[in-house]
# Entry
Amino acid sequence: MPCIWYVSGIQAHGNFLARPHRHELDLAFRDGRHTNEGRNTMASKKEKSHADDPKNATLVDDGPELLTDTQDHVCVMTINRPSRMNSFTPTLMTALSEGFIEANMNPDVRAVIVTGTGDRAFCAGQDLKLSREADEAGKPYRYFMTTINRFIYEIILETYKPTIAAMNGAAVAGGFELAVACDMRIAAEHIVMGLPEAKRGRGAHFSTIMLPRIIPRAIALEMLFRGDYITPAEGYRCGLLNRVVPKGKALESALEMAHAIAKNAPVTVRRMKETAVKSSGMPLAAAMRLDEGINPYLAEDRMEGTRSFLEKREPRWKGR
# Structure
């Protein structure tokens, strides 16, 4: 008899969770009007229309596409396109790339968080409305490895400061891949996540490579092949998420995690991050001989760490 359990009201079977009624979600993401409430049940026909609900009034973008704030050694980047589900534009992807590069080079930054405005969407990936307009205009499609700039997910992956995705809302397609590129992921309990590329005739190339390295291969491939959305409960159970928190608390939880990391020796944290990334897939003997970044055993901060522990005080790190 197959194993059956229940998570967040969804019936699940021994292989992975059955996720009915996703058609409405697909339409909502397409139109940029996803509401995160009641995602696991079909909306009642007796309810008033979406347009009549004040909660779903048209959102207006206020300010630049990307907001950046650095305080207490933590850089927070907020995608600010709520009217289009915080989806990507070429200029937004450039701003994100520059933001991560600048945070990586800033000696005062010890951790980086990326999140989205509002609670409807973390990021919905590429703005398909803009993509369709480009197709209709006859512009050739330039995918990530054919552009003159480095790909944003590659930049995030190689940022030697710890990176955290504070998934405040839905994370789908390229938005889900944005979270996958980060070191850690915290999700609000009301969101959905997934890779619908197989249903859209698109690629999900980055997640095809990275997701099986993060979660069990069979689950990763099911997510890729089926193109279904999953819940935070599922994501936490398979090891994709570090934490699941109440609605509206994703950024708060990410800040708590980032500040805890920022208190530690930056030389050691950088060494850990670079070694973990660059040793992936390497034979053990070769990985053990990697010597990335500053060697903490030869750094001033090693002596400061010993002194502060023995003197029962907070360490004063110099980052060298």
About this structure: The first strand starts at residue 4 and ends at 7. The longest helix spans residues 90-105.
